[in-house]
Write a structure and sequence with these properties.
The chain is of the alpha+beta class. The protein contains eleven helices and twelve strands. It folds into two domains: about 210 residues, Jelly Rolls (Sandwich), CATH 2.60.120.10; about 100 residues, Arc Repressor Mutant, subunit A. Helix 5 crosses helix 7 and helix 6 crosses helix 7. The longest helix is centred in the middle third of the chain and has 24 residues.
Amino acid sequence: MALKLYGDDIENPLMERDHPLTGSLPYQDIIECETHLDLPYGRGSYNEIYFGDIHIGYGLANLADKTLLNFETDHETVEMHFAMKGKSSAVSGNFVENIDFSDGQNNIIYASGMEGTMEWESRNFELFEINLSPGFFKKFLPDESSLFETFRNRMEKGNGCQLNPEHNRINARMYELINEIINCERKGLFKRMFIEAKTIELLLLQFEQMSDQSLIKTSLKRTEIDKIHAVKDFIMKNHDSDHSLIELAHYAGTNEFALKKGFKELFGTTVFGFWSDLKMDEARKMILEKEMTISEVSDAIGYKNPRHFSTAFKKKFGIIPSQLKKF
């Protein structure tokens, strides 16, 4: 299984990978690597985690201009693609249509050996992708709709395609799962088990979105979507702080009503519901993995009153923090 990424100079690839057939490795083995990319108009990095039937890639780039790259792969894969930031467009000979993504979109792509070009259009570019072996993917592929059956038939014929003709929005729970995978601090077998479980949950969420076609459309304009994503990014980087809705709206250059309505439409939850979920996930991690008291955890995630923290924690997980600490 090989992957090559290069600019105009074919003789000197920007990235070249020859991955082993990971399915043949002992179950507990998990491989991780990071590649720094010296791009034509900027710099970037690409982090990988792979084991068994799962290969995860997380890329970041800061670009001064549009960047055109060439790519080659020689393997058959099903890719869960999440465009976190920026716009991209890929052209390959075995795809009928271009593969175009804007930030906040997700889809599932089947490819069997690809060669073509891709263009990254935005200054800040970020993507998250999980490649699955077709055999692993088919174990979960539903068969109750024509959308899934069409994808299955194209896979059998080796025709590159997107599962859904229209992309879906990355919802709040998807962002949480992606964040959990990227920042997982477990090691060895425990890390593999954790990531495999989160991958299956992400796949479930994608399938559920595609079963509900009403989730595809949005009435929001491009500028409105950008502002709401700016608030989401701010929350994810500052989840332990405390800000009012009007402060968040002013930060993004919008108003409270537009932020509340747009956030719910894009992510399926409220601004503070999303923020609370992030805080509770971080709190659970602290309780399980660090030597901290409940009061210390409460203070660390921005709660002034430990009782209010315990109430929010129980609402999210069904137990109070002190009960979790006993496990």
